[in-house]
Amino acid sequence: MKKIDRYITMNFIKSIVLSLFGFINIFILSQLFKVIRYVTEGRFGGVDAIYYIISLLPDIIIKVMPLAVLLGGLMTINKMASSLEIIALKTSGISFKRIITFPILIAFIISCGVYYMNDKIYPESIKKSREIKRGGYEDMELPESRKKAFLRGKDNYVYYAESINRITSTAVNIEILELDSEFEKLTKIITAEKGIYHRENKLWKFENVTVNNLEKKSSYTLPVMQDVRYDDEPERFLAPSVNPKLLTIKEMRSTLGAIKQTGGNSREILMELGDRTSFSFASFVVSFLGLSLGSRYVRGASAVSVAMSVGLGYSYYIVQASMEAISMGGVIHPFIGAWIPNILFLILGIYAMYKAEY
What we know:
Elements: H1 3-40, H2 46-82, H3 85-91, H4 96-99, H5 101-136, E1 145-152, E2 157-165, E3 170-179, E4 186-198, E5 203-213, E6 218-226, H6 234-238, H7 249-262, H8 267-280, H9 282-294, H10 302-328, H11 334-354
Antiparallel strand pairs: 1-2, 2-3, 3-4, 4-5, 5-6
Helix pairs in contact: 1-2, 2-5, 2-9, 2-10, 5-8, 5-9, 7-8, 8-11, 9-10, 9-11, 10-11
InterPro entries: LptG/LptF_permease
Protein name: Permease YjgP/YjgQ family protein
Subcellular location: Cell membrane
């Protein structure tokens, strides 16, 4: 790395960190009033409030990182343009694309870091924040029954019931999918016409059962079946048991396969999977825009560039929300809808880079 690359890269990183802290503070302040209200109402104590705010940080960082990179790129290049450093570099024969090569590389590395945070840290932080909130809230009343109920069990198995009722503790047309220890390969499919949950011994009793062992390639029927593994209460089927936000990307892919096996609705998980992967690389995509807009320095134009940059940054979120709504409505595939904002803004960013003034 040459001295000029180190100079640009360090300024770029400093600008991103500055922007990131600014956006994080704004988001924390927006949550602080809610947290203070929870504390004064006795929903949780002061220590829980601190842990709750800390648990929100991964989600906040993931959400604001594209804006931080966008503004960081704009501030870095705009400062160089205002001191005529960009002109000097261009005059010496260095192209604008070469000038921003390392900042774009840094933006890609940041996106990889966001991807890791989105996959490993974000689900755990969401679980923690919900545990803290749940500790202070009264339990929500569950519905009496549900159709097409899906539940991942405590071990490597998945339930699907055409209908389940927590009052009568019964389920109709049940499928149980057993998977291997990696939760990737389907090993056994169990179907039953009816299931009765015995609350005294906390076990399901299944009637008219067919067991298909995929590993041994065998099949047999049973009039009645009970197994100590299948002890999940009917209430768990009625709660939002499989929340995609609480799963890692690997778990979402495995769960997606299980849902398809049972014929359940996989659109929500597909949308979350697409958002996790596509939004992680939003920082890389918008870096082209920030760096290109920052090069457009003329007297009095800095404020216009900043306003345009912020406007484009929020436009990304608007397009993303619109695509999510369209995808959830079934107009387009959720995974494709999640990537459309990245594709559109990458094209716009590359165009802006080629149209940069210097």
